[in-house]
Design a protein that fits this description.
This is AP complex subunit sigma. This protein is α+β, with helices and mostly antiparallel strands and 142 residues long. The protein is built from five helices and seven strands; from the N terminus they run E-E-H-E-E-E-H-H-H-E-E-H. The strands form two sheets. A five-stranded antiparallel β-sheet has the order 2-1-5-4-3, with helices on both faces.
Length: 142
């Protein structure tokens, strides 16, 4: 089960944080900074997942943004990497191509895409066309 999804720049600026389970707001910046520090310490030849406290952290770097996903320790790291790939493919298809600026100025749409894919921490949709359909409907109303 997914616990959170973060998008953090290499400089340490959080562009997206979506938590699927309750976590104190005052604890979130500390968690995000600590995860980014641990990820930066890892070498390029290390795998993209590691255990942190009671979580399994899976991450991937796209352009200058780390996509970081926290899950249960039992979750399959490869499947979470596939989820990250799907999420970025959907964003890339919608924004064509996705940039940090798109994320900053269209945060509501990025959250909407994420919520189409994940409900209550469980991945419920993997078809890109089905994920983008509500977005396209919303855009056609304008």
């Amino acid at each position: 089960m997914l616990k959170f999804v973060l998008m953090i720049t290499k400089k340490g600026q959080t562009r997206l944080s979506h938590y699927f389970e309750r976590r104190e707001i005052k604890d979130r910046p500390t968690l995000e900074a600590d995860l980014l520090r641990k990820i930066r310490q890892r070498s390029l030849d290390q795998c993209s997942f590691f255990d942190y406290q009671d979580l399994r952290i899976t991450y991937r770097l796209y352009q200058n943004i780390y996509i970081i996903v926290g899950t249960d320790t039992e979750e399959n790291g490869i499947s979470v990497l596939e989820f990250i790939q799907l999420f970025m493919e959907v964003l890339h298809t919608y924004f064509s191509p996705i940039t940090e600026i798109d994320i900053m100025y269209n945060l509501d749409k990025v959250h909407m895409v994420l919520e189409e894919i994940v409900t209550n921490g469980c991945i419920v949709e993997t078809c890109i066309a089905n994920i983008l359909e509500p977005m396209r409907l919303m855009d056609s109303k304008k």
